[in-house]
Amino acid sequence: MQEILSTIDTGTIEWSRAQFALTAIYHWLFVPLTLGLAVIMGIMETCYYRTKDVFWRDVAKFWQRLFGINFAMGVATGIILEFEFGTNWSNYSWFVGDIFGAPLAIEGIVAFFMESTFVAVMFFGWKKVSAGFHLAATWLTGLGATISAWWILVANAWMQNPVGCEFNPDTMRNEMVSFADVALSPFAIDKFCHTVISAWIIGAVFTVAVSGWYLMKRREVPLAKVSLKIGAIVGIVASIGAALTGHHSAYSVAQVQPMKLAAMEALYNGGTDQSLTGIALINPFEQPDYANQEEPDLKIAAPYALSFLATNDLHGYVPGINDIIKGGYINAKGEVELSLDEKIERGKQAITALASYRQAKKDGADETSLASQLAIIKENMPYFGYGYIKSADQIVPFVPVNFYAFRVMVGMGCLLILFFAVILFFVYRKDITRAPKWLYLSAIVMVPLSYIASESGWLVAEFGRQPWTIQDMLPTWVSVSNLQSSSVMITFFIFLALFTTLLVVELSILFKQIKKGPEYEQV
Amino acid sequence: MQHRSFIYKVYDLYRDGFRHMRLGKTLWLIVLVKLFVIFVVLKLFFFPNFIGQHAKEGEEDAFVATQLLERE
After folding, report:
1. pTM strictly above 0.80
2. Which of A63, A193, A245, A469 could serve as A479's disulfide partner, Cβ 3.0–4.6 Å?
3. Complex ipTM
4. What is the domain count for chain A?
């Protein structure tokens, strides 16, 4: 029995991770367009409210129709992730229940009541409610979606930086001791701002792309002209916002997940005055030999920029992968960082004390002997997960994915700023309706590229967190349920088929509606 | 029901809205099929509550403790 329980089929771990990644990536195809188009349609309808020009009403209705298609396709795709928590990740799910459960429950309630109520008024209420109330409903639909995103991101932020909780060895659960610490952690705020703003970019790119297509076909010119202008303004503001919030997010990562930052940068050996790598030669298919290599080959870097990004000080100390394993440096909290061996020792103490506590309680031990075990658990709980680590390579995320995904995301972010600037140049200084065809085509190409950038950001966030499901407290192979890997594999392919079908259906309906164009009501 | 009451207005909003849907009907059909697949097919047959299935009621903590403490 012990043998069955002590080791887990690596196939189960990898298929469970792959399944969660697949469903999360698909879910994130629909969500950012919802959040982004919510801003676009809100602006359009605000223009209608202010001008009373029915042209703006019909423009707003067109974008709301496309919003509705994406909203319908995306709704409930996130529920599947929650199913996976309960089945594939049951140990994790129990361990975090009280912390995770609250934000997810609030998200579901807000999504169900707020979004569904106001989306009905938005679609059905044009002739039933006042213009002001309808406008409010449109903005509140978007706000509801954004508030839902807040709670999901709070839950994810807690995985990256577990705060506001205490472990209860009787219930085997982490219990929330400070709702404010969880809901308003600096990490959660940074993650929320950066994620939502990046979603606005997706909405903006989509708007510009559809408008560009219309102009290329010499169709719907008035709608395309105003939509392209508004989309580009939202896009450039959001792109710059994403850069600023991204800088802050990287700073947060440096504080609480230094190994993730080291993997993002392929920083094997750190120090002060660290440069930010633009590009380097890293084999995309295998983990680099960070233990023996000084730095990646053919590295082109900006001097001091990584130190500034990580510490807000051009000369700040940034630990590399080997430094984090060795320990001994002064960390972001101003303390001497423990070595991996020291963390493993403390993790083992926590696990042993937990086992002793539970056995002693079962045997009816007195409070005094229980108290000593409790004290050891409490002191060492932050390193609980290290008790399962056998070798240093287990705590190093897969560097190539982190390295290249980060560069794809940042590179695209810079390209997007340039792209929107060029669009706005044509809008304000030239005639956007007579722009060269390459500009309209580039707008269309920007849609998949922006999605790749957006998904790359999530790859950095989640691959960089490995091997932890909860940073430092629970690794993946302990979090996962003891399932047959074949059952996880089967559901992986079911999801692949289901989500691909949904995506194909959405795209076909979207393209059909875009080709159909707006409906202009008789005044 | 008074035609000006709030409840009637809400009812009227939804009734008229659903009645005049065109694209919406297609989207609703897709949503309902999707919800059926997710909550009936997937949840019932492929995503049981693992701990609920393997632990006795009231002893879930002991089950998880065994999993965590015995796992390597």
Report:
1. yes
2. A469
3. 0.90
4. 3
